[in-house]
Amino acid sequence: MSLFFFSPQNQTNISRLGKWGGLAYILLFGGVCLLVFSPLTKILTKFLFENPQSADSLKFSNAILQIFITATTVLGVGFFICKNRPLHYLPLKKSIYPRDFFMILIFAFLSLPFVNFVADWNQSLHLPTLFSNLETWIRETESQLAATTELLLQGKTFNILIINLLAIALIPALCEEFFFRGLLQQWAVFALGNKIVGVLFTAFIFSAIHLQFLGFFPRFLLGIYLGYLTIKSGTLWSAVLAHFINNAIIVVAAFLYHNHIICIDYHTVGNFSNNITIIIASAFLSFLLLFWYHKRYKFPPKFPHRDF
Predict the structure, then answer these.
(1) Average per-residue pLDDT in the chain?
(2) What is the DSSP string of 44-112?
(3) Which residue among 15, 42, 126, 243 is least enclosed by CB atoms within 10 Å?
(4) CA–CA separation, 45 vs 67, rounded Å?
(5) Euclidean distance between CA atoms 172 and 282, whole angstroms
(6) CA nearest 65: which of 43, 34, 30, 31?
(7) pLDDT tens per residue, range 60-91
(8) Ranges of each domain in the chain
(9) What is the pLDDT of residues 46-65, one digit of tens each?
(10) Burial level of 135, CB count in 10 A (0-12/13-18/19+)?
């Protein structure tokens, strides 16, 4: 298959691949971009930083990699689909209503105890003895990723806080939502012919592609929530905001902890694993808030999905 997806001489529209073919095409395009830009980003980082493993270099490389992959995939597929309007298919025109903003903000904190409970449960799972070597590799990889995250969140100055909010919270929120909810979910709904199945499919891919299996289920739930927000609100900005807040909570908590403003370890913010009452209340009130939001406000007249 030619990689010149959107060259002028290529007049083949992606829809001619069929619904499932188009879905595979998008995933393949994203995978190729990942394989191409990963080594290029490492080369660029080594060129710009003396220590490629420093916190600054890791933030830079992660941010640049996400921007390159998202821009290439979203714009590339967009050019191929929409010709001269590569971003036309993204639901970006509608702004976030104040009610959506406050609902998203409240939900982020209200759901923390339940999400942390799911995360703890996920980490307690074990594979069958037959796959013990695989589980050992998974847990070692998770430990390495945790150490990297710890390194990225170090720093006590306000400048570092702003950099972390940009590199760890905002850029991932924008890039991941543009690809997963903006591009992949819309095509999944189109291919599968069902909004719920499309949201579940995208959430599964969203969680699996992070390759953090000990955090698969809480990230899967997050993907479902972000997919629902995109459909319900009619704008991708709702999912971007929710994703940003989710990331920013840990960034701000780490900053406050390192500056001794709060005494609670940022790893345990919102964690009430030993208090089942708070966990149940968190789950119930979170569901109640979403139920109220769902019933009080009707879906937008047109779901942000186009038949490409």
Answers:
(1) 84
(2) HHHHH-S-TTSHHHHHHHHHHHHHHHHHHHHHHHHHHHHTT-TTTTS--SSPPPHHHHHHHHHHHHHTH
(3) 126
(4) 14
(5) 26
(6) 34
(7) 889 999 999 888 888 877 777 666 666 777 88
(8) 1-88, 91-296
(9) 888 888 788 888 888 899 99
(10) middle
